[in-house]
Each structure stands twice: as structure tokens, then as C-alpha cells.
Design goal:
Elements: E1 5-9, E2 12-13, H1 20-36, E3 43-46, H2 48-57, H3 62-79, E4 82-83, E5 89-90, E6 92-98, E7 109-112, H4 118-126, H5 129-146, H6 152-166, H7 176-194, H8 202-216, H9 220-229, E8 237-243, E9 254-259, E10 271-276, H10 282-285, E11 291-292, H11 293-299, H12 301-318, E12 322-329, E13 332-340, H13 345-357, H14 363-369, E14 382-383, E15 393-394, E16 396-399, E17 402-408, H15 411-419, E18 424-428, H16 436-441, E19 444-447, H17 455-463, E20 466-469, E21 474-477, E22 482-485, E23 488-491, E24 495-499, E25 504-507, E26 512-513, H18 516-521, H19 531-546, E27 550-554, H20 558-566, E28 572-576, H21 586-595, H22 599-623, E29 628-632, H23 646-656, H24 660-670, H25 682-687, H26 689-708, E30 714-719, H27 725-746, E31 753-758, H28 761-765, H29 767-773, E32 776-779, H30 781-789, H31 793-796, H32 800-805, H33 822-836, E33 841-844, H34 852-860, E34 865-868, H35 873-889
Parallel strand pairs: 4-5, 17-18, 18-19, 19-20, 27-28, 27-34, 28-29, 29-30, 30-31, 31-32, 32-33, 33-34
Antiparallel strand pairs: 1-2, 1-3, 3-8, 6-7, 6-8, 9-10, 9-12, 10-11, 12-13, 14-26, 15-25, 16-20, 17-24, 21-22, 22-23, 24-25
Helix pairs in contact: 2-8, 4-5, 5-7, 6-7, 11-12, 13-14, 13-19, 14-19, 19-35, 20-22, 21-22, 22-26, 23-24, 26-27, 27-29, 29-33, 34-35
Bound molecules: adenosine-5'-diphosphate (ADP) and magnesium ion (2 copies).
Length: 892
């Protein structure tokens, strides 16, 4: 028979820190601390699988009841108190705790076991009736709220009234008498709301609380959190039953929370807050302003010394920064929790590096401790350090970045004001698909309700926009077009500033600035003055030592190429040539080319474009000296370059010497029903070979010129949207001919490769044939995802969020590579192609190249490199290191 209940107390425990899956994080660490000899009040943990069993079958087995009965008896022995004993009652807390730390679970119930009789016993045993009744009223309100469903606000109202009528300045000033009568009022309230008396039997109380913990696993908030973070629903939560220690026994008692290092900067100093004569979460609840932990040295010196010593031991033992919760009862210290502390990315970097210096962890562990996506935080705009502002509310940090704008309460107004050039922040109760255009128009989104998977959160993250959701302090009045946040009234048109990385909301237009790392990358801050950048660079260097995948960037301009190099890109995986045609007078030459009636006209226009392209390529080769540059030939349908009516058309017709009707006829002749699947990619080069020829010439001329300047050039020419090998063969011949011609005339040879994008299912399925004509493959996973799903990326935003919310898709396939479908095509293509050419160079250049899970996929699929936006390069480098380290650690 497997056990379900694990005891801890008297210096030994049944569990250890390695049993998180069974006991949950809280339970496993309570056991570990007990084993270490850290003072922890005794208790026991019900295994998480019991939660799963209960939710599946309902009911509680006799076996479990018996185990709990035995554990309780042991607890009575160890503590010398008895559960329900009117003379000397044992009181316990009932606490949830899953294997992964999860907000949104049940609030802890304290002082369970109190009733009208035992409260008298507690009063006599402690000699402190005030304390006994304070504990009782806390228990009544918590239990009634969490288990019986009586809103906590109704208790708080009674409490506030009691303070008023007795003239007490704060809760701790209420007399024993006042608390005693408050308890009666609480009990009446429970009776009035639930139609039944508050349960007096401690056994009934206990099982009620245990079942409530189990139920809390299925609360919407908890379910949403698991969805966003990919935590399986089948884990369940442990239940911890811990004998009470009391921080509310007087001025020699207290409670607090602390971090072994500063969680926002990472600085190595003990950091925390505490309150004298308080219980449970008074510190974080914000009822009284907590004291800085240093004050504790003065107020409770003995306990403070012990706490300092204990926190150092815990950090050494767990070898990571700890977030601890403690209580002092009449001068004696107890630890109630320790866990790995949450921290900002800057703090995570500093702590990881310091711990390597201190010999606590290895470089490899330091690399693994930083999550790739966390690096993003280092790049987003931040609120300028000069803005010493206090937030007026805090919500869920759904999507990072700092943004300020004027408040607008409906999507139409957001759109209108945006079109007038105003910066708007869309504020909604919650968003729905009808708000989509408003989100597009806004710089940031703020909602009062909704969790991390709400519509607003998903859409904003997808667009890379700052968003804060579930900011419950907001009260929006649509009627008055205003909102209240605490005492502040914010009207439509007022300025606010959001920090999406922390969830903080500020009044006014706070100055924002690029982050420290970005300022170094952009060359406006010297590295020597940038400690976070230095830490970042060191850690990235360690990561590079472990990865196998190369990381390139998608960059279209010399400027982007330089940014990419500064972020450590090892080449360009995708240089889109069409972007070059939009700037300045180039678009005119491009339009001339499109409008031309015959090849001669097209060639004349192309001749104008050639020097412009050549200059761009030369700049890019220079920025990427020594690294490969993959240049994709023209890809989009030609009509994208033409104006669609209006004044612009008029001017164009004039400059080309065409009648307006003539231009309109050409434009409409180019119009396609489904341009995404129309005349684009290599299909352009097949119909207009002179375009391919011009682009190839521009590339080779630039390459030779750069080469003459001593630059190590490695051009790779990439043919887009191939579905059959014949297309590649056709384009290849043109490119090779251009190469021979240019190099012949210029009298200098440079090495080059010709390859193709694999972005259509048919290309993947015929990869073996295509490989014969290709020096490299690059998976264009954006189009490959579109064509595999038959789903247009530009239109998916309208309905994909509902798919995600309803769980029809686990992830947005345009963000996380769909390993099952699209990934299968990738794997097949790699396998078939390498059967033909064993060392064919293979990479990907979709947006996925910057997504950690997709990078892991690429590592496993045996790709040579990933290519992503310059700003995602560090994420990809770290993700590639993680993938390699995970593979190295995986059991054979
Ligand atoms: P959370 O998971 O929200 O941190 P906890 O279960 O840690 O909730 O409980 C919150 C707080 O309640 C603890 O930090 C501690 O102050 C208090 N608490 C919990 N159990 C006990 C106990 N047995 N004795 C005294 N205080 C307790
Ligand atoms: Mg806690
Ligand atoms: Mg494509």
C-alpha cells in the first residue's frame, strides 16, 4: 500500500525536497527544513495524487481518513495538545501547495480547531483573552470566506464598524471584549447567509478545509495560470496541515517575509519586511505598513540573529535565492515556508553570476537558471529612472514594455483618436473580439478583469504590445467615461503610464527610455557603465559555449545587421530584398518596372534599381564581415508596390506619362483573388527572369566590391516559394549565369551558395529532388505554417484567440512551431534531403526562430541554425544552449 500522508516534526520528516511531485513544493520544503533542523512547527502533508483522486471520484477513502487520523494523533503527541481539547487545544493551518508554485489557489486557513469552547481554552492557556478572540475572529472569517462562500467583504465591514464604534485606531487596538462581540456578529452573519451554524466540530472543520483546497485546483484563475504556463492539470495540489504558531501574541511576537537577496537588483543582502503582533499574511495584505527587516534587529534581537543565520543556511542548502516566510512567537523563531524566490531578469543575472563566483553553482547551472524568454525583459523600454512615481494600482503583467497614453474606454474612440495621431491606451472591463481594432490602434491595453489567458492578454502578447490585465482596483464607469482607482478618478483623455513587465499602473505621462542593455547595443552607453549589460554578456558567453545550433538574424538593412551583430548573430538567415524597394525614389523605379509594357521597359527600370540594391548589399556584407548572408529574391506579389487609387495614383500616372484609366487598368489586371497563393515568390522570377538577373547581379557586384575592400563575404542566394525542383533549376541557371558574367567582368571570384526556402508542403514532400539543385535549405516556417494549416496569418488574429481560449489549440502556431504537423514536414524534408546530400546546410527563418520551444525543436531536428529578429537573437542563443544541455542531461 502506498502512503498518502507524510509527517514532519521533532527534527525528522517522512519527505524530502526531492518529493515535490508527491508533496507539492511547500510540503517538500517543510519536510526538508525539518530534516535540516530548521525550526518548523510540526505537521503533515496529504499527497497531491489524493487531490486528483478526489476530483475524479469525489468522496474520501477510509484509508485516507485513517492515515489522517494517525497523523493527527502523532501531531498531538509531539505538540502535547489535543485537537478539540477545550483545556489545551491543538490548532492548525490548512494550506495548499502544488509542485509548481501557483497563484490563484486557495487562501490558507489559520487557527483551525477553534470553536466556542476551545477559544476559552486558548484564552486560559495563553493567559491572553485578546489574543484568543483575535485568532478566533480571523479563523471564522477566513473559513467562512474560503469554505462556506461568505464574502470576506461582509466580515471586513463588520470589523470596520467595530473599530468605529469602539474608537479603535486599528485592528490591534480592539479589546478582548470588542473581539468577543465581533465573533458573535460573525457567527450571525454566517447563519444568515448560509442558513446553517458555523461548524463547531474541529473534524468537520478540518475535512471542510481539505476539500476546499482540493476544489481550488479547479478554480478558473488556477486553470488559466496552468494553461499559460504549460503546467499539466493532472498534477493536483498537496494539502499541508501545520500546527499553529502565533505571531499575534503580543509585542514579543510577529510575522514576516524575506528574500535572501534583493529580488529586484539581485544584490547580496538580506531583504524583507515584518510586523510586530501580527498573523499570517498581514504583512502582504497591506493593512498596516510593515517594517523594514533591519528594524527587527532592534525589536526582536534574539529571533533576528537566528533568522539571519537560518536564511544563510537555507540559501547554501538550496543553492538559490530563497523567499521565506516566518513567524516569531514570544521571541521564538519558526519558519513556515521557503521556496526559490521570483526575481527580475536583472536580478536573476546578477544572482547567477555571483553564485558562480561564490562557488555555489557551476557556469552550466547559471546558464540553465535563466529562462530564455526572461531576456526579453532586458530589452523593453522602461520607465525612466528619473520618474520617481508611485503606482496607483497593480494588475497582472500580461505583456511587457512601458507605454504612456491617454485613456480611452472604447475601441472606436481608440481608433479615431489614433488616426488623429494621439497615443491611446485602451481601458476595458475585459476585451472581446469586437475590440480588436481598438487594440490595434492602442499603444497598450489595460483591463479590470481577466487572467493571463484572457482575450486582451493573448492578443496584446501576439502583437508585442504592453498589456496589464485583471487589474481589479479599476472601477470603470462607462456612463461617465471615467474610472476610479482607489481615490483617483481618471477621465477619458487623461494620461496614464503602464509598466507591462511588472503590472504597475501610474498616473500621468511618465518618461520612458530604452533599457540599459539596449542603450549599450545602440552605442549610446559605454559597457563599463552598464553592470547589467556586463552580466548579460558574460552569461551569453557561457551559453554560447554549450550550444550546437548557430543563431542568425533576419535583417534587411545595414543598420539591422549591425544591431544583430551586437546581439551576437552569426550571420543573416533572411534578408528580404523587397523592403529595400519601398524607400524614397526607389518605389518610383520599382513601379516603373511593374508598369512597363515589355521586357525592354522593365530592364530600363531595373537598371535604376540595381545600384540602390547593390549599395544596400554592400553595407550588409560589411556589417556581417566573416559571416554568411542569406539574401532572398523578390517575394511579394507586385500589386503590393502599387497605389490603390487616390491622389497617389494620380501623381504616379502623371510621372509615368500614363492616362489615369490606363494605370487603373494595369493595377486591376494585377489584382488577385488570393495573393498569398498567387503570383509571387519564384513565380515572379520565372515570368520575369530579368528581375532575378538584376538582383543576382546586384548581389555579386556588391560581393566583389566588398571583397576588394578586404571584407570576408559569404553570400547565399535564396529562391522563395519553390514547390517543384524545376523552378529552382530554372532560377539557378539565371543566377549562375549572372555570377559568371559579373565575376568575369570584374575579374574577381567570391564563393557563393544558391539554395531555396522550403515553405510549401509540396517542397517539403519533394525535398529529395529539390536537394539536388540546392546548396542549402531554409524553412520559411511562417508560410509553411500558413500553407500547412490553410490559415492566413493576417486574418487569423480575428478568431485564433478564441481557439486558444477554448483550448482547441494549445499555442498560436505562428508563435510556437507546430511540432506535430508543420514539424513533421520539416523532419521529413531534412531526412529526405540529407539522404541525397549528407551535409546539406539547413536552417529556419520564420518568426519561430526566436521562440524557445521552437528552437528546442530545431535542435532536436538536427538543423544547423535558426534565424530570428535581431532582438530575439539572445533568446535564441540561450534557448539553443538549454536545448543542448537538456539533450546532454537526458537519460540515454
Ligand atoms: P501562500 O501559499 O499564499 O504563501 P501559506 O500557506 O504560506 O500561503 O500561508 C500564508 C501565511 O500564513 C504564512 O506565510 C504564515 O505567515 C501563515 N501561516 C501558515 N501556516 C501557519 C502556521 N501553522 N502557523 C502560523 N502561521 C501560519
Ligand atoms: Mg506562503
Ligand atoms: Mg515566404
Amino acid at each position: 500500500m502506498t502512503r498518502s500522508v507524510y509527517f514532519f516534526g521533532n527534527g525528522t520528516a517522512d519527505g524530502t525536497r526531492d518529493m515535490k511531485v508527491t508533496l507539492g513544493g511547500k510540503g517538500a520544503n517543510l519536510a526538508e527544513m525539518t530534516n535540516l533542523g530548521v525550526p518548523v512547527p510540526p505537521g503533515f502533508t496529504i499527497a497531491a495524487d489524493q487531490c486528483v483522486a478526489y476530483l475524479e471520484h469525489g468522496g474520501i477513502s477510509d484509508a485516507l481518513r485513517a492515515e489522517v487520523r494517525d497523523a493527527l494523533a502523532r501531531l498531538e503527541d509531539v505538540s502535547g495538545k489535543r485537537f478539540g481539547d477545550p483545556a489545551n487545544p491543538l490548532l492548525v493551518s490548512v494550506r495548499s501547495g502544488a509542485s509548481v508554485s501557483m497563484p490563484g489557489m486557495m487562501e490558507t486557513i489559520l487557527n483551525l480547531g477553534l470553536n466556542d469552547e476551545t477559544v476559552e481554552g486558548l484564552s486560559r492557556a495563553s493567559g491572553n483573552p485578546r489574543f484568543a478572540y483575535d485568532s478566533y475572529r480571523r479563523f471564522l472569517q477566513m473559513y467562512a470566506d474560503v469554505v462556506l462562500g461568505v464574502s470576506i467583504h461582509r466580515f471586513e465591514q463588520l470589523l470596520a464598524t467595530k473599530r468605529l464604534t469602539t474608537g479603535a485606531a486599528s485592528d490591534s487596538d480592539l479589546s478582548a471584549e470588542a473581539l468577543r462581540s465581533l465573533v458573535k456578529e460573525y457567527q450571525q452573519l454566517v447563519r444568515a447567509v448560509t442558513g446553517a451554524d458555523f461548524p463547531m466540530d474541529p473534524q468537520v472543520q478540518l475535512w471542510g478545509a481539505i476539500e476546499a483546497v482540493w476544489h481550488s485546483w479547479t478554480l478558473k484563475k488556477a486553470v488559466d495560470y496552468r494553461k499559460v504556463n504549460g503546467i499539466p492539470h493532472t498534477l493536483g495540489t498537496g494539502v499541508n496541515i501545520v500546527s499553529m504558531v502565533f505571531g499575534n501574541m503580543g509585542d514579543d511576537s510577529g510575522t514576516g517575509v524575506a528574500f535572501t537577496r534583493d529580488p529586484s537588483t539581485g544584490e547580496r543582502r538580506f531583504y524583507g519586511e515584518f510586523l510586530v503582533n501580527a498573523q499570517g499574511e498581514d504583512v502582504v495584505a497591506g493593512i498596516r505598513t510593515p517594517l523594514h527587516i533591519d528594524e527587527m534587529a532592534r525589536l526582536l534581537p534574539g529571533a533576528y540573529e537566528q533568522l539571519l543565520d537560518t536564511q544563510a543556511r537555507l540559501e547554501q542548502h538550496f543553492r538559490d535565492m530563497q523567499d521565506i516566510e516566518f513567524t516569531v512567537e514570544r521571541g521564538t523563531l519558526y519558519l513556515l515556508q521557503t521556496r526559490t524566490g521570483k526575481r527580475t531578469t536583472a536580478a536573476a543575472l546578477r544572482i547567477a553570476l555571483d553564485m558562480v563566483d561564490e562557488g555555489l553553482i557551476t557556469q552550466r547551472e547559471a546558464v540553465r537558471r535563466l529562462q530564455p524568454n526572461q531576456l526579453d525583459q532586458l530589452l523593453h523600454r522602461v520607465i525612466a529612472s528619473t520618474a520617481h512615481a508611485t503606482p496607483i494600482a497593480v494588475g497582472l503583467p500580461a505583456s511587457p514594455g512601458a507605454a504612456s497614453g491617454i485613456v480611452v474606454f472604447d475601441p472606436d474612440a481608440a481608433e479615431q483618436r489614433h488616426l488623429k495621431g494621439e497615443q491611446v491606451i485602451l481601458v476595458r472591463e475585459e476585451t472581446t473580439p469586437e475590440d480588436f481594432h481598438g487594440i490595434v490602434a492602442a499603444r497598450a491595453v489595460l483591463t479590470a478583469r481577466g487572467g493571463m489567458t484572457s482575450h486582451a492578454a493573448v492578443v496584446a502578447r501576439g502583437m508585442g504590445k504592453c498589456a496589464i490585465v485583471g487589474c481589479t482596483a479599476l472601477e470603470i464607469s462607462n456612463e461617465h467615461r471615467s474610472m476610479c482607482i482607489g481615490d483617483h478618478v481618471v477621465a477619458e483623455g487623461d494620461w496614464i503610464t503602464l509598466d507591462g513587465g511588472t503590472g504597475r499602473v501610474f498616473l500621468g505621462d511618465l518618461p520612458t527610455q530604452p533599457s540599459e542593455v539596449m542603450r549599450v547595443i545602440n552605442g549610446v552607453l559605454p559597457q563599463a557603465d552598464a553592470p547589467t549589460y556586463q552580466g548579460f554578456a558574460t552569461l551569453m558567453g557561457w551559453a554560447d559555449a554549450h550550444r550546437r545550433l548557430k543563431v542568425r538574424a533576419n535583417a534587411d538593412t545595414p543598420r539591422d545587421a549591425r544591431v544583430a551583430r551586437n546581439f551576437g548573430a552569426e550571420g543573416i538567415g533572411l534578408c528580404r530584398t523587397e523592403h529595400m524597394f519601398f524607400e524614397g525614389d526607389r518605389i518610383t523605379a520599382m513601379r516603373e518596372m511593374i508598369i512597363a509594357r515589355d521586357e525592354g521597359g522593365r530592364r530600363r527600370a531595373l537598371e535604376k534599381l540595381l545600384p540602390m540594391q547593390r549599395a544596400d548589399f554592400e553595407g550588409i556584407f560589411q556589417a556581417m564581415d566573416g559571416f554568411p548572408v542569406t539574401i532572398r529574391l523578390l517575394d511579394p506579389p507586385l500589386h503590393e508596390f502599387l497605389p490603390h487609387g487616390g491622389e497617389e495614383s494620380f501623381l504616379l500616372a502623371q510621372s509615368l506619362g500614363l492616362a489615369r484609366q490606363e494605370l487603373a487598368r494595369i493595377v486591376s489586371a494585377l489584382r488577385e483573388t488570393n495573393p498569398m497563393l498567387g503570383h509571387r515568390g519564384c513565380r515572379l522570377g520565372v515570368v520575369y527572369p530579368e528581375i532575378t538577373e538584376m538582383q543576382a547581379r546586384a548581389i555579386f557586384e556588391a560581393a566583389v566590391r566588398a571583397f576588394r575592400r578586404g571584407i570576408d563575404v559569404r553570400p547565399e542566394i535564396m529562391v522563395p516559394l519553390v514547390s517543384d525542383v524545376s523552378e529552382l533549376r530554372h532560377q539557378r541557371a539565371i543566377i549562375e549565369q549572372a555570377a559568371e558574367q559579373v565575376m568575369g567582368v570584374m575579374g574577381e571570384r567570391v564563393p557563393y551558395l544558391i539554395g531555396t526556402m522550403i515553405e510549401l508542403p509540396r517542397a517539403a514532400l519533394t525535398a529529395d529532388e529539390i536537394a539536388h539543385q540546392a546548396d542549402f535549405f531554409s524553412f520559411g516556417t511562417n508560410d509553411l505554417t500558413q500553407t500547412t494549416f490553410g490559415l492566413s496569418r493576417d486574418d487569423a488574429g480575428r478568431f485564433l484567440p478564441q481557439y486558444l481560449e477554448a483550448g482547441l489549440l494549445a499555442d498560436d502556431p505562428f508563435q510556437v512551431l507546430d511540432a506535430k504537423g508543420v514539424g513533421k514536414l520539416v523532419k521529413w524534408a531534412v531526412r529526405d534531403a540529407r539522404d541525397v546530400k549528407a551535409h546539406l546546410k539547413v536552417g529556419i527563418c520564420g518568426e519561430h526562430g526566436g521562440d524557445p520551444r521552437s528552437v528546442t525543436f530545431c535542435h532536436e531536428a538536427g538543423l544547423d541554425y535558426v534565424s530570428c529578429s535581431p532582438y530575439r537573437v539572445p533568446v535564441a542563443r540561450l534557448a539553443a544552449a538549454h536545448a543542448a544541455l537538456a539533450a546532454a542531461n537526458a537519460p540515454a
